[in-house]
Amino acid sequence: MLKFLRLLTALIACILSNAALAECRIGALDALPERALIHLPAAKPSTAAMPLVVLLHGSTSNGLEMLRDSRLAETADRHGFIVVAPNGGIPAGRGFVWNIPGVPTVTGALPPRTARDDIGYLTGLVDRMIATGCVDGARVYATGLSGGGRMASLLGCRVPHRFAAIAPVVGLRAGRPLKGDPDRVDPSTCRPGVPMPVLAFSGDADTTNPISGGGAPYWRYSQTTALARWAALNGCSRPYARTIDANDYEQGYTLCRGGATVAARVKRGGGHSWSTVDNEAMWTFLSHHRR
Questions:
Q1: pLDDT for residue 24
Q2: Which residues contact 105 (CB under 8 A, 6 or more apart)?
Q3: Residues 169, 224: contact at Cβ < 8 Å?
Q4: Using CA atoms, how far apart are residues 41 and 82, in angstroms rounded to an integer?
C-alpha cells in the first residue's frame, strides 16, 4: 500500500510539473527577435496555449505594415489567436523581401548566398513561440500577401509538419515555374509528403500576379495550375466551383486525403492587395485544421 501511495504521489507530481511547463509564459515572448511583431488577443487566457497565425508581408514591406493593413489583429481579438508578423531576411527598397531559393526577388536578382534562410528562421521562430507554452503546436498556420503569399506557399511545400494549413493572398504557388515552360509547375520543387489544406485569396483584376497567368518570372503559371498541383499533392478527386455572393466566387477541390481541401476565393474587380480577403472566412478555414 505504501509503495502504491508513493507511486501515486510521484505520478501526480509529474502531471503537475508537466502542466506547469505547458502554461503560457507571456513574458517569454519578449525574448523573441525584435523584428518579429507579436499581437496577443485582447482577451487572452492566462495559461492556455493558443493558435498562431504567421503573417508574412509583401515584397519591400515589413511586418508592422502588414499587421496594420491586414487588420488581422482585430480578427485575432475576436477569436483568441496570436499573430506574429516578422520581417523578411533580405533588405530591399523601404523594407524586406523573403528568401525563396532559386526564385528571383522583385529586384530581379536571385537571393544572395549569404541571405538568411527564411524557412529556417520562420520555423525556428514558431518553435520558440511554442516553447513559451503560449502557442499550440498543432494549430500553427501561415498566410501572407504577394511575396508573403509565395513564402507561405513555400512553407506548405517544405515544412508541412509545422503548419496545419496555409492561406496565401494574391500569391498562391505550388513550386517554381518549370524551366523552359514557365506556364507549368516544376513538380520537383514542391513535395510536402503529407496533406496540406490550402485556401487562397485573389482578385480577377490583379495585373501583378494575374490569376490567368503571366506577370514577373516568379509568377508565370496561373492560379488554376497552382490549385490543380495542390489538388494532386493532396490526392483530391472532386473539383468544384461555386458563387459566394455578387462579389466573390470560389473554385477548388474536395475529397482530399487527411480531410484537406484546396480552394481559391476570387473577388470580382479585386486587385493585388489584402482587400481580396475575408478575414473571417480565412480564420474559419484555418481553425478547422490541426496538425
A1: 84
A2: 59, 90, 92, 97, 98, 111, 147, 218
A3: no
A4: 6
Under 8 Å CB-to-CB from 196, ≥6 apart: which residues? Answer: 156, 157, 160, 163, 165, 166, 230, 233, 234, 260
For the chain, what is the largest distance between any 2 Cα atoms, rounded to a whole number of angstroms?
Answer: 76
- The position carrying cell 510536402 is 192
- Walk me through the domains of the chain, giving residue ranges and CATH numbers: 2-287 (3.40.50.1820)
Cβ count within 10 A of residue 137: 16
Bigger pLDDT: 261 vs 4: 261
With a cut of 70, say whether residue 258 has pLDDT above it. yes
What is the full DSSP assignment across the chain? -HHHHHHHHHHHHHHHHHHHHHS--GGGGGGS-TTEEEE--TT--SS--EEEEEEEPPTTB-HHHHHHHH-HHHHHHHHT-EEEEEPPSEEETTEEE---TTS--TTSSPPPTTS--HHHHHHHHHHHHHHTTSEEEEEEEEEEETHHHHHHHHHHHH-TTT-SEEEEES---SSPEETTEEEEE-GGG---SS---EEEEEETT-SSS-TTSBSSTTTBS-HHHHHHHHHHHTT--EEEEEE-SSSEEEEEEES-GGG--EEEEEETT--SSGGG--HHHHHHHHHT---
Q: Is the pLDDT of residue 65 over 70?
A: yes
Give pLDDT tens digits for 226-236.
Answer: 999 999 999 99
Q: How confident is the model at residue 7 (pLDDT cuts 50, 70, 90)?
A: very low
Q: Which amino acid is at 105?
A: T
